[in-house]
Amino acid sequence: MFAIYKKELRSYFINAIGYVYVGVFLAAAALLCCYTTLISQSYDASNYFTALIFCFIILIPLLTMKLFAEEKKLRTEQLLLTAPVSIWGMVLGKYLAAATLFVGTALVSCINFFPMYSYARAERLAAAYASDHIGPVTAEIIACLVGVILIGLAFISIGLFVSSLTENQLAAAVITVAIILVMLILEMLNQYVEVYAIRFVIDWICVLSRFSNFTVGILDFSAILYYLSISGVFLLLTVRVYDKRRWG
After folding, report:
1. How many degrees, rounded to 5, is the angle at CA 21 between CA 17 and CA 26?
2. Predicted confidence (pLDDT) per residue in 145-190, tens digit
3. In angstroms, what CA-CA distances link 118 with 21, 30, 39, 234?
4. Which of 27, 77, 161, 231 could bridge 157 with an S-S bond, Cβ 3.0-4.6 Å?
5. What is the model's pTM?
6. Which CA distances in Å does 7 have to 34, 97, 103, 165?
């Protein structure tokens, strides 16, 4: 598994995909942070993180589209299936490589909050009285970051599964975009649904409905379990796809 992990992580930077992903992610994060906090003169980071989640519609497919589709296109898939590694090891190696690049870039993007803390410190010093309530709420930022990372990891598992179904990277990207888009916008449509059973199903599918607690600094363990469950389910489905191909 570790060999596949290193190979996949290195492959992101052999071609342009890794550099494009990191550049687009950091540029989008900087612009969103600027508009939702600094220009808006607000210390509320929840709008920034919510907007960043919608950027995953483009960013995550860029990260996952090649994971298995490229193996099929280059006819190296059989080498993976006959390699001395379990299917779980193969799937986890690719998943963890994408997850490492995603989490690393998300953590680096947190430097966007340094100007907020600097501005808040200057504002407190200039105030007639020192107030600890002036400035960003660190607990809110940490909770939102945890939620965003968990949602991103869930989306990566979905993109990994889609990539295992086709050899066309563009098709894998488009299908992943469609799935993530649906999972994000369902909450907006839910208010127009009158049937409770349908609203319940939509609320269960929509990932944003469980993100609200993170935006107020609460680590919602039921939401954490939900996001981890999505990752686990789609990793299992990917394993089943290749288990069938190995013995089919």
Report:
1. 155
2. 999 999 999 999 999 999 999 889 999 999 999 999 988 888 777 7
3. 28, 16, 15, 42
4. 231
5. 0.91
6. 36, 9, 18, 21
Q: How many Å apart are CA 84 and CA 177, to the nearest integer?
A: 33
Q: What are the backbone angles phi and psi of residue 138, rounded to the nearest 5°? A: -65, -40
Length of the chain: 248
pLDDT-derived band of residue 142, with 50, 70 and 90 as boundaries? very high
Q: Is residue 60 predicted with pLDDT exceeding 60?
A: yes
DSSP string, the chain: -HHHHHHHHHHHHHSSHHHHHHHHHHHHHHHHHIIIIITTT----HHHHHHHHHHHHHHHHHHHTTTTHHHHHTT-HHHHHHSSS-HHHHHHHHHHHHHHHHHHHHHHGGGGGHHHHHHHHHHHHHSSS--TTSS--HHHHHHHHHHHHHHHHHHHHHHHHHHTT-S-HHHHHHHHHHHHHHHHHHHHHHTT---HHHHHHHHHH-SGGGTTTGGGT---HHHHHHHHHHHHHHHHHHHHHHHHHHH-
State in Å, rounded, how far the first CA of the chain is from the last one.
23
Indicate left, alpha or beta for 20 from its phi (over 0: left) and psi (-120 to 50: alpha).
alpha
Q: Are 155 and 208 in contact (CB under 8 A)?
A: no
pLDDT digits (tens, 9 = 90+) for 202-212: 777 788 888 88
